[in-house]
C-alpha cells in the first residue's frame, strides 16, 4: 500500500496562505464556526492523516475550507451549505494555482463533511475531514460550541420545568442541553476511522460527566 504521509509540495507556503484566507473567511462573530474552529479541525485532520495514512494534499485544503460558505442554522439553505462551500473552495484553489489533480477529491471531502447534507463519505480523505469536524462538536470544546450556538439562537440552556426531558420530547431548537441527547451523543456512531472513534468515545464520556455536574447545580 502506498504510504500517504502528510507531506505536500511547499506545505508551509500553502498552510500559511490558507490560514491567512481563513482569518478573513471565518470572523469571530460566530464562535462555533470561527477561525479557531477551522484550525482545530485542520490540526485534528492532520493527526488523523498520520494515523490513517491518508493524502494530506486533499485533506489540508478541504479541512481549511469545509465551511467556506457558512449558512446559519435554521436557514432553508442549510442542507446545501457544504455543496456551496465546495464550489467556492474550488474556485479559490483555482485562483491561487493549487494542483488541479486534487480538485474532485477536495470537492467530495467538503461536500460530505456536513451532517445535514447526508452525503456518504466514499474516500478516506473525506472520512477524515468529516471525522475531524464532528470531533469538534464533542468534548470540552463541543460543550462550549453548543452553548455558544444556544446563545446566538436565543434559546435557554435547559427547560425550566423538565431539564432532562423526562416527560416531554427532546427539542434542541428550543433548549441547549437537548442537543447533546438529540444529536451529539449519536455522532460517535457516525465516525468513520478507528482513531476518531476512540477519541470520540473519550469526548462523549467527558460530556456525560459535565452533565452530571449540571444536574447537581440546577
Keywords:
Hypothetical protein af1432, disordered N terminus, mainly alpha, 2 domains, 9 helices, single chain, Methane Monooxygenase Hydroxylase, Chain G, domain 1, globular, HD_domain, 218 residues
Topology readout:
Blueprint: H1 11-25, H2 35-52, H3 56-64, H4 81-96, H5 103-112, H6 124-135, H7 139-152, H8 178-187, H9 194-217
Structure, briefly:
This protein has 218 residues and is mostly helical. It contains nine helices and no strands.
Give the topology string: H per helix, E per strand: HHHHHHHHH
Instruction: Domain count, please report it.
Output: 2
Alpha-beta classification: mainly alpha
The chain-level mean pLDDT equals 91
Radius of gyration: 18 Å
The CATH class name of the largest domain reads Mainly Alpha
Number of strands: 0
Shape: globular
Task: Please describe the biggest sheet, giving its number of strands, its sense, and whether it closes into a barrel.
Answer: none
End-to-end C-alpha gap: 54 Å
Strand content: under 5%
Under the CATH scheme, which architecture of the largest domain would be assigned?
Orthogonal Bundle
Uncertain parts:
1-6
Helical residues, percent:
55-70%
Q: DSSP helix count? A: 9
CATH topology of the largest domain: Hypothetical protein af1432
Amino acid at each position: 500500500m502506498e504510504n500517504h504521509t502528510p507531506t505536500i509540495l511547499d506545505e508551509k507556503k500553502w498552510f500559511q496562505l490558507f490560514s491567512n484566507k481563513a482569518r478573513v473567511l471565518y470572523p469571530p462573530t460566530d464562535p462555533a464556526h470561527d477561525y479557531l474552529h477551522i484550525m482545530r479541525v485542520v490540526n485534528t485532520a492532520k493527526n488523523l492523516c498520520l494515523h490513517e495514512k491518508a493524502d494530506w494534499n486533499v485533506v489540508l485544503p478541504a479541512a481549511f475550507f469545509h465551511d467556506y460558505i457558512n449558512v446559519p442554522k435554521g436557514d432553508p439553505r442549510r442542507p446545501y451549505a457544504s455543496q456551496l462551500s465546495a464550489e467556492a473552495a474550488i474556485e479559490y484553489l483555482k485562483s491561487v494555482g493549487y494542483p488541479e489533480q486534487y480538485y474532485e477529491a477536495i470537492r467530495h471531502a467538503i461536500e460530505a463533511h456536513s451532517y445535514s447534507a447526508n452525503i456518504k463519505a466514499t474516500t478516506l480523505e473525506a472520512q477524515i475531514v468529516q471525522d475531524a469536524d464532528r470531533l469538534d462538536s464533542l468534548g470540552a470544546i463541543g460543550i462550549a460550541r453548543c452553548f455558544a450556538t444556544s446563545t446566538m439562537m436565543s434559546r435557554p440552556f435547559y427547560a425550566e420545568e423538565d431539564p432532562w426531558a423526562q416527560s416531554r420530547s427532546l427539542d434542541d431548537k428550543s433548549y441547549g442541553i437537548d442537543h447533546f441527547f438529540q444529536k451529539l451523543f449519536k455522532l460517535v456512531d457516525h465516525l468513520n476511522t478507528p482513531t476518531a472513534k476512540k477519541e470520540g468515545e473519550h469526548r462523549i464520556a467527558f460530556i456525560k460527566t459535565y452533565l452530571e455536574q449540571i444536574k447537581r447545580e440546577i
